[in-house]
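Slide 14.
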Amino acid sequence: MIVELAPSEIRFMHDTIRPQFRNGKGVNQVIEDIYKGVTKIEDIPRIEVTKRNNKYYSLSNRRLYVFRVLQKRKFLSRIEVFLVTRWEEQKYTTKSDGESVKVRRDKTLPHTFDNLSRKKRADSSNNCTAASLANADPIFASSTVVSKSPCVANFNR
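Slide 15: predicted structure.
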């Protein structure tokens, strides 16, 4: 089933993630490429999410990290996810109940939120235009923003 959630409503299953996707592209490079317009949010496959004890957990932690960084920087507020019923106990290695993750051997960009009831914050975020990113994000201030991004990432997969 496909549902819409704010990335901040979804927890990580691990404490750390690899710095690259399986295709070799770095997670932080994907974020920069989205800012530059080289990569579209829609090019990133939907993440799989499962629910346990009324909390959502991602089975796709690197992509969740990308989406959380983008939400933190007000580039998007919600994403479409696959809600699945399976729980992979062997993958649940977080010691922070999924609040945060560290990128191994690379810089971990801001991606955490102050409280777990984040729906109001995500829904009230109206500042989701790419034009505001250079001012809001000093890390990518030198990036050329070429297009607008919707607050909700809609996927055609």
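Speaker note: The two ends are 13 Å apart (CA to CA).
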